[in-house]
TrEMBL record:
The keyword Flavoprotein applies. Keywords: FAD, Flavoprotein, Oxidoreductase. This is FAD binding domain-containing protein. Residues 1-170 form the FAD-binding PCMH-type domain. Residues 97-116 are annotated as: Disordered. The keyword Oxidoreductase applies.
């Protein structure tokens, strides 16, 4: 197996263009498990750890640009203000060791329906920046990035450079059901983001369909009927939960049944919206 070690982004793109079969490795918390269990035997690994810029984040053009190699620990320590939903999700990932190594870019690269970054990225309206040497940069909205189970819109000669996330303008919450409190892959998960300026609520479902996805009908319901100046109408909240549950298309597997996941999505949708709405009203009253 060849081990390619670019030191700049340009070298990394060149290596991926010349060896599209090379498997990128950032934190290695997914890749190394696959190698250990012989799930795949790549002819080359493309180590991105020397490309320093991938581990940086910045505020650019009104967005928070999070480099693909930024580990969860940094998201938790430094980005809880602008990206509270993503930071909450990051806190639930694995263990301290996994959060030190594992990255948002790696979560996107793996494109698992159970990845914890995906629901808050969907709810916030994130855009994934990918690049190839031949065709340059593509900006892919998160909602168009996930194509199937562990399949994304990334082409073989492309690398993920960063993810652009609008800083929160309202409360955001992430909720995850697992079989225990830590070191657990989601049975299912849910994220909500209030966008008060646009009078819009974003959603993201995890581990409840072949891909992470938004609950579009539920978002449309709130866009049409939510009164942003009043307490949350219990009947509207119930309909929101039902539509979120209806957006799920889960399977039975070792972690849970499809029926349980549908039920849990409805519960988490109602809970997270209630938490977010309480914060919203509190902030208005202050
Ligand atoms: C014990 C344990 C617990 C875990 N718990 C959780 C959990 O609670 N929640 C969760 O979501 N995940 C969990 N994971 C999975 C994993 O930690 C995450 O998916 C993490 O985000 C992967 O990031 P990484 O940097 O380690 O990626 P890597 O393993 O380096 O890469 C992951 C995938 O992304 C690709 N890739 C990486 N960087 C790029 C790039 N720049 N461009 C294109 N492709 C790229 C790789 O080729 C690979 O396919 C766990 C893993 C372990 C081992």
């Amino acid at each position: 197996m060849d081990f390619l070690r670019p030191t700049t982004w340009e070298e990394a793109l060149a290596a991926k263009a010349d060896r599209p079969e090379a498997v990128p490795i950032q934190g290695g918390t997914d890749v190394m498990v696959e190698l250990n269990f012989d799930v795949r035997r790549p002819t080359a690994l493309l180590d991105l750890n020397r490309v320093a810029e991938l581990r940086e984040w910045s505020m650019t053009g009104g967005h928070c640009r999070v480099g693909a190699g930024v580990p969860y620990t940094v998201v938790i320590d430094e980005l809880g203000g602008p990206l509270p939903g993503l930071a909450q999700a990051a806190r639930t990932v694995g263990s301290p060791q996994i959060r030190n190594r594992g990255s948002v870019g790696g979560n996107l690269g793996a494109a698992s329906p159970a990845g914890d970054s995906h629901p808050p990225l969907l709810a916030a309206g994130a855009v994934v920046e990918v690049e190839s040497r031949e065709r340059g940069v593509r900006m892919i909205p998160a909602a168009e990035f996930y194509l199937g189970v562990k399949r994304s819109a990334l082409e073989p000669d492309e690398l993920i450079r960063a993810v652009h996330v609008p800083p929160a303008t309202g409360p955001q919450y992430f909720s995850k059901v697992g079989t225990r409190n830590a070191m657990v892959i989601a049975v299912c998960s849910f994220a909500v983001a209030l966008h008060p300026r646009e009078r819009r609520v974003g959603t993201g479902l995890g581990s409840a369909a072949p891909t992470p996805r938004r609950a579009l009908e539920a978002e449309e319901l709130l866009a049409a009927e939510l009164d942003w100046d009043a307490p949350l109408d219990p009947a509207l909240l119930r309909r929101f939960g039902d539509l979120c549950a209806r957006a799920a298309a889960p399977i039975d597997d070792v972690r849970g049944t499809a029926a349980y996941r549908v039920h849990a999505i409805g519960v988490m949708a109602r809970r997270t919206l209630t938490w977010a709405w309480n914060d919203h009203l509190e902030k208005r009253a202050a």
